[in-house]
Input
Amino acid sequence: MQTPQFVKHQKVSLRKHPTLSEKWLQDIIAADPSILGLGDLELIDSERIQERAGRLDLLLYDGDATRYEVELMLGACDASHLVRCIEYWDNERRKYPGYDHIAVLVAEDITSRFFNVISLMAGNIPMIAIQMSAIRIGDQLAIDFITVLNQTQLRQDDQSEPAVSQEIDRSFWDNRVGKEIMGCVDGLLVAFQASNPGEYRLRYVKSHVGIAIPGERRNAVRIWPKKSFVTFALAVKNPEEWVSTLEAIGLPVTRRRGSRVSCTVTPQQFAQHKQTVQELFACRVGAEDDE
Output
């Protein structure tokens, strides 16, 4: 194997650069969020207007149940950006409670002072801090992203669950979220069966509940019960139209990868909009793997 050739490089300060701006960096990440090193993420929105003030630089998601609120800063991390990052994270998690939310702060220099502050806050706030370095090699520029803090502790059931989910008893979910919420889950099954005749049943695992396809280890719909609401996801025909329809009646909804959509309902909302949910189920295509 040939020995790689050494190339001399020069570190560049983006904050002091005459032409490169935060908007330039934002566009680079938006075009390929994977460069942050957080996995195969997708862009939901950039410059997202917040209700009280300001704009969230980037809102990313993992195609499943986690959203990342990303605040960018050229130069050293300061208190205003840290507070802003947490505020935007809080706004988004309140507006879309059906997802797990992680605050992400990206800066050229995360000083020891702010590293300590972030570490204290991250005990209660799932947060990732990323330090970036711009490097010039000849006439080309590279940016290296290094995660210096990752405090996004998994739930105990997430940490111990095997690669293939093992079914559990219904009582686990009754105790975890209460019978009212599980009654809503039962209602989703009834609505699904009304639109999709067949011997479907609920399959219970520690991370979610599935509307199981008869004779298969796949789900027609995947459901995440919480203590005050239920989030469910499935692949449907015309996903963009369904996003508009569900938003119009006040249900939080997001289009995920391809034809998958995710919707959040409370028991009261489900009772009010049961017919619309049933029509959504009638447009199902494909299945959700149970792994």
In short: The chain has two domains: 10-153, 159-289.
